[in-house]
Design goal:
Largest sheet: 5 strands, parallel
Radius of gyration: 23 Å
Length: 426
């Protein structure tokens, strides 16, 4: 069975490997000219595809961020720079001969069901060769979407931005600090990208203002005794403890622990939500930059003026040269012509975060569409193994028609009502 895999990043590579392990024929398509996905930084980012910054360091340690059959080399740092992450992917691809199954510089324009889909489960892909500009159509027995959940830029619109004389950009288009020397910059958003930009610019800019609408819990990569934080926190014992204790107690314990490093209330960072309600922001240097005055925390932006930014508390940042929007992405699968993968309010229903529940047969799947607690790679590997085995079983059933699967019916509305089955990106 030929299986189309869309994307050659962290999830796409392991999807190729899993298909090969099950005797399937994977064909991977990627619009870039190399593997690595968003981790492969380019000076000119590709529109419609997110990318890391030149200085980005991974937020999970190598101890929690590797494929089960290919350990990160011992001489690699615990928290890898994006170039090291890509090097790890290249070694993984070379070891298992994965790159030969990737068609680079190929864009998937449309994925739709073949005419006899109910009988065959086949999908029709419209493909464009970005080098020659030609298009073609191919059919596949299965489709695995590994394009990630960071897609189109979510760009806010500020009142008065037409009169603002400075530069307004999204972190997607931020390459590095060059051009921001001795400037006054407002960074909007306190997620990982926003804080990374803030720290980098605070070292060379005249002043950086970090605007946050609701605050965030800040956790450092380096924990007790200099060990990676996820090595200490993401253990079976800690998981068991969190299941045994009331959520309010675990939240109190974590928040108190985080405040020992950085008093969130004192610096205007304490969010209204509890620790477990949202993903934390990972940063090692924010406390140092705040206490030195290089970074000033501000509330949400009210409006822009010609050379200044006004915040909702009435304070004003004068002589602002640039506004950098770290406001995230709107994820989606616009190339898939099926209602099952339509994203509504930045959420999509996926069984096990993998299969659209109302597509039968289940020959299309999504890998890596989750916000991981820990490293993405091992979870994408488990999802890929599941998908490959489902597709392999379908191939066996097609060959041996006397085999059948038990059919379990369930209410689709009941499925959607279970929050654990719905991926939501906020």
């Amino acid at each position: 069975m030929k299986v189309a895999i869309i994307g050659a990043g962290a999830s796409g590579l392991v999807a190729i490997k899993s298909c090969l392990d099950e005797g399937l024929q994977p064909v991977c398509f990627d619009i870039a000219d190399d593997i690595g996905g968003l981790w492969n930084w380019k000076e000119r980012p590709i529109e419609g595809r997110s990318t890391v910054m030149k200085s980005t360091i991974i937020n999970t340690s190598k101890e929690t961020s590797f494929y089960s059959d290919f350990v990160v080399p011992p001489d690699f740092p615990n928290f890898m720079h994006n170039t090291k992450v890509v090097e790890y992917f290249r070694r993984y691809a070379k070891h298992f001969a994965l790159a030969q199954h990737v068609r680079f510089r190929t864009e998937v324009l449309r994925v739709s069901q073949a005419e006899n889909f109910k009988e065959t489960g086949r999908w029709r892909l419209e493909l464009k060769d970005l080098e020659s500009g030609t298009t073609r159509v191919e059919e596949f027995g299965g489709v695995i979407v590994c394009s990630g959940h960071h897609a189109d830029k979510k760009m806010p619109r500020f009142e008065g931005q037409e009169e603002f004389e400075g530069k307004i950009i999204h972190t997607h288009d931020y390459a590095d600090y060059k051009g921001y020397e001795d400037k006054r910059v407002v960074v909007v958003g306190i997620g990982n990208s926003g804080v990374d930009v803030t720290i980098e610019l605070s070292k060379i800019s005249k002043q950086v203002y970090l605007s946050t609408r609701r605050g965030a819990w800040i956790i450092s990569r380096v924990s007790d005794e200099g060990l990676p934080f996820d090595v200490l926190l993401l253990t079976r014992f800690q998981y068991l403890l969190s299941r045994c204790l009331p959520e309010s107690v675990t939240n109190y314990m974590m928040e108190r622990w985080l405040d020992r490093r950085l008093n969130h209330s004192l610096y205007g960072l304490r969010p209204a939500h509890r620790w477990s309600a949202q993903h934390p922001t990972v940063c090692d240097d924010l406390a140092n930059r705040l206490i030195a005055g290089n970074v000033i925390v501000k509330p949400d932006v009210r409006r822009l003026h010609r050379k200044s930014v006004e915040f909702v508390d009435g304070s004003v940042a004068d002589d602002v040269d640039a506004v950098v929007c770290a406001t995230g992405y709107l994820f989606g699968f616009p190339f898939v012509d099926h209602e099952a993968l339509r994203v509504t309010d930045n959420s999509v229903a996926l069984y096990k975060y993998v299969f659209p529940p109302d597509v039968h047969p289940s020959t299309i799947s999504v890998i890596g569409c989750f916000q991981a607690i820990g490293g993405l790679m091992p979870i994408s590997e488990m999802q890929s193994r599941l998908v490959a085995r489902v597709l392999k079983l379908r191939r066996i059933m097609k060959i041996h028609r006397y085999l059948s699967l038990p059919v379990v019916t369930a209410s689709y509305s009941d499925f959607l009502s279970a929050s654990s089955t719905v991926f939501r990106w906020c």
